[in-house]
Structures are given as C-alpha cells and as structure tokens.
Amino acid sequence: MVVLSVNDLTYKIEDKIFFENFNFKIEENDYVSIIAPNKSGKTMLTKILCAIIPTTNICYFYDMALNKESVLSYISKLGIVTNDFNNPFIFKKVVDELKYPLINLGYSDSRIKKTITKYAKYFEIENLLDKKIVNLTASEKSKLLIIIALIHEPKVLILDDAFCNMNKIDKLFMLKKIKELNQKKLTILNITSDVETIYDSNRVLVLNNFKLEADSTLDQIISDSSYLNKIGIELPFIIDLSLKLKFYNLIDKVYFNLDELEDNLWK
Fold it and tell me: S-S: 255 plus which of 54, 69, 143, 261, CB 3.0-4.6 Å?
C-alpha cells in the first residue's frame, strides 16, 4: 500500500522550473533512500513533502491530500529532520525539546514522562536530558533532532542529510536503531548525499537536477560507480574497495563496514 506520494508536481520560482511533472511514491514499511548530489533538489523535495513549501493536492499520505484544510493532520503523521535551519531548537534544555511535541499533541504529564524515558533509554541519551542544548556536541544535536522527530511515533520518518554532522560512532548507532524501528513497521525515507547512510535501504533512488534518474536496489545503484561519480556522488573508500575486490571475485558482496570486510578477507 502506498503511504506517501507526490503526484505530477511542477514547482517553479518566477520563471525557473525546479520539478516538472514529478512523481514519487513509497510503500508502507519501506526503507527508501534517495541519494542526491548537492543542489539537486533533495532539500526542496523534503520541504514539499513536509508542507514547509505549500502545495495543494499534490502530496498524499495514504488517501489524505495535503492542502490547507488537512495540513495539521498530515504533518502529525510524519517525523521530519532537515538540516536546512540554522537554529532548529526552541528551548534551552534537551528534556524540554522532547516534551514540546508531546505537549502539543495533548499528552498527559505522566504519558510525557513515560514516553521520554522510553526514547531516552532506547537511544541511550539519559545522560543528556538535563543538559543545555548549547553544551551538546554537533553529533549529539543531530541525534537529538532525529529523536524529537520520532518521539510522537509517526508513521513515516523523513530524513534530509540527517547524519551529516554525526561522528562515525553516533552515525552507525543511529542507523542501527532506525533500521530496528523500520523492522517494527516504521516507514523510512532517507534523502541524502552520503552513500554510507543507505546500506539498510530496500530501495534506492537517484535524484539529479530535480529528476529521478534511477530507481533500483542498493547493489545495482552502487555498482555503477562511474555514473555516481559523474553526477557528483563520491563513494566512500570502503565501498569503492569492495567493488574492486568483488570485480576480481575476491569477495561476493559490497561492504559498508571496514571491520566486516577485514573479517571476510581473513577467514
């Protein structure tokens, strides 16, 4: 069943056309990544999907058309993370940021406390709850934005380069946790320029110059490294090395993790 879609989108500013007759959809419980070079339309697409850029009856959540009348109901079903805002936080303390969406949804004090405890434990941020946001690292702030987007238990999580400010350890940890949530029926849309974040996707699309140029599996997309390099997407060293080793039949799959590749080679 289609959970989120864009139907025949044409979007322009003055005389400049960005998206033209653009169509896109993701199925319920999918883990879809859209890989895109910079200035190719990924953040604009995120803003359209999330009603930050207004449209009328172009975006759909199941059968709900996004328009002025439905916008609040529509966005309440989504968890949204975009790095396009200079200061995405409203409050000084972490715990207050986590409370805010739950207060807006009318949660009782006891339910708010229980929900924050649950998510803080799941994402291992109990030690951050009473901290001031200004004292967090860039990586911790990025983690917090994803947790805020998830805390009201949305049906779909939309990520726009959400991992770009994370250190390696936090990135791997958050990707693991998000994959677990996907296996528990959360639909994921990961819009990114970072190939390292698409490993768990069951479907990968390429967005270039405001057009979808490919829609395939992870293996098929990354195997065409010359195409990705041509449009400005650089493969991480470990993936590039894996592709070369696989070409010479030294390994049987592409690795995203150096430790796993070393384990395979030294068996």
Answer: 261
- What are the residue ranges spanned by the domains of the chain? 2-93+148-233, 236-267
Tokens matching residue 23: 């169509």
Work out the mean pLDDT of the chain and round it to a whole number.
91
User: Tokens at residue 239, please?
Assistant: 């993936």
Handedness of CA 195, 144, 153, 69 (dihedral sign): negative
Q: Which residue type does 234 have?
A: E
pLDDT attached to residue 85: 65
> What is the distance of C-alpha 116 from the center of its chain?
21
Percent of the chain predicted with pLDDT > 90: 73
Distance CA 137, CA 117 (A): 21
Strand partners, 12: 17
Give Cα separations from 15 to 11, 18, 53, 200 (angstroms): 10, 10, 17, 39
State the greatest distance between any 2 C-alpha atoms of the chain, in Å, as a whole number.
60
How far is it, in rounded angstroms, from Cα 190 to Cα 193? 10
Phi–psi pair at 75, nearest 5 degrees: -70, -20
Superfamily of domain 2-93+148-233: P-loop containing nucleotide triphosphate hydrolases (3.40.50.300)
Give the angle subtended at the CA of 74 by the CAs of 70 and 76, to the nearest 5°: 125
What pTM value is reported for the model? 0.91
